[in-house]
Amino acid sequence: METANEELRSFNEAFQSANDELQATNEELETAQEEMQSVNEGLQTINAELTMRNEQLNALNNDFHNLLDSTRIATVFLDRDLHITRFTPSITTLFHLRDTDRGRRITDIASRLRYTGLPADVATVRDEERVLEREVRLADGDAIFLMRVQPYRTLDQTVEGVVVTFVEITAGKRSQIVVEETLRTLNVSLERRVVERTTDLQAVNRALTQHIEVRQRAEEMLRQSQKTEAVGKLTGGIAHDFNNLPGVIIGNVELLLDAVQEQPVLAELARDILDSALSKCKLTYRLLAFARKLPLVPQVVDLNALLPGQVAMLDRALRQEISVTTTLAADVWRTLADPTQIGEALLNLALNARGATPHGGRLGIETANLHLAIGMRPRLPTRRWATTSCCR
Hints:
- The chain is α+β, with helices and mostly antiparallel strands.
- The chain has seven helices and ten strands.
- The protein has a five-stranded antiparallel beta sheet, with helices on both faces.
- A hairpin with a 4-residue loop joins strand 1 and strand 2.
- Helix 4 runs antiparallel to helix 5 and helix 6 packs across helix 7.
- The radius of gyration is 64 Å and the shape is rod-shaped.
- The model has no long low-confidence stretch (mean pLDDT 77).
C-alpha cells in the first residue's frame, strides 16, 4: 500500500511538473502569438507603405510617359553602352523607330542624319560629361533641327547614359536667314548711300575749294587791278607834268637846228637831242595810254613790229629773275587794234605772270594766226584772227 502511494505521489509530482511545463509553454505561446501579431501589424504597415509608394511610382511613371508622349521634342535615351532604352513619340516620326528598336546601338540610326558625327558626340558627352549642340538636317529632308546631347544623370548626379533631343528650328532659321539677308541688303544700301553722300560731299568740297581759289585769284586780280589803277593815276599825273618839257626842248632844238645848219657837228648834236626828245614824247604817250588818259585809236598794226618796243617796257616792269623772250610768226596778219591797249594788255599779263612766279622764270611772248570755227568763241564773229599770247 505504501508502495502504491509512493508511486501515486511520484505520478502526481510528474503530472504537476508536466502541468507547470505546459503552463509555461502556453505562456510562451501567448507571448509568441502577441509578438507575431505585432510583427504582422508591422508587416501590414510596411505593405501599406509599399502599396502607397508603388501607387506613387506608378503615377510618376504614368506622368513621365504622358509627358514624353505629349512633348513635341524628339528625345531618345541611351544607356552607358549607348544603346537605345526609350524614346518619345516624336522621334518615331524622324527616325521611324519602333518598340523593337529598344536595345539597338545609336550607330544604327545615325545614318538617317546628314550629320555623321552623332556617334562620336554621344561618346564624348558620356565620357567628358558635357553638353554639345549642333544644327543638323535629316538625310531625306530640308528641315533643320537643333540637336542637343547631354548626360543622363540620376538623383545622385551619377551619369548613367546620354539624352539626345531634336528641336525643329526650320522656321526660325529661315526667318533668321531672311533677317540676315535684309540686314545685308540694308547694309549694302547704307554703304552705297554713304559712298554717294561722301562723293557728293567731296564734290561740294572740291567745288568749295575751287570757289575759294577762284575768289582768292579774283581778290588777287582785284588787288593787282587796284595797284595798276593807282600806278596808272600816278603815271598819268607824272606824264602830264612831264609832257610839257619835251615840247619846250623840241621847240628850242628846232630853232637851234636852223641856226647851226652851216655847222655840221653842232647840227648833228642838235638832231640827236631832237630824236631823244621825240622818243620821250612817245614814252609820255605810252604812259598816258597806260593811265587810260587817252581815247582808243584803233589802227592797222604789225604785231611783229610793235612787240619789240613793248618788250623793252616789260623788261623794266619785271624783276631781273624773269627773262622775256619773243617768238614772232613770219606770216602774221595785220591787226586792227589800239597799240596802246595792246601794250597795256601785255603789261597786265606780265604782272600776273610775275605774281605767279615768285622765284623767277621765263616769260615767252608769241604771235600767230588763228582761225575760229563756229561755236569756239560765241561772242566773237567767225573770221581770221591774229593773236599774241604769253606763256611762262
